[in-house]
Design brief:
Elements lengths: L2 H4 L19 E9 L6 H7 L5 H10 L16 H13 E9 L6 E5 L2 E2 L9
Antiparallel strand pairs: 1-2, 2-3, 3-4
This protein binds zinc ion.
Amino acid sequence: MRLITHNMLKCHVKNCTDPDKQFPLRFKDVQLEQIEADRNDEFLVRMLPRIDWAALLKTAKELNIELPDKVPESPADDGEFLSTLHTVILETHVKDGSMVCDGCGHEYKITNGIPNMLLAEHEI
Ligand SMILES: [Zn+2]
């Protein structure tokens, strides 16, 4: 699972509705893997407005990944920034581990790069 996917996931357990806690999910015991991908600057620039930067920054810090605190004013002209962004959100994969919700404590397992977002019946 790529970090860009994680940036779009929030807890969806019933009654877990505090926006400050259900997102971003906190990684636990994760095994990371770098998988090379072709860089597409146009795509990166287009994705930027959809990325929650504060959440990405928080997650990157937890994983000891370097990321600038802020998105530069003209990201399209900043090759170094785009290169870092590409590496972090598209080439960094979580292979195994889990994601924990700070709101309700639900643990979403990740196995072979696939997050299990299914809930038990009482959580729906
Ligand atoms: Zn939750």
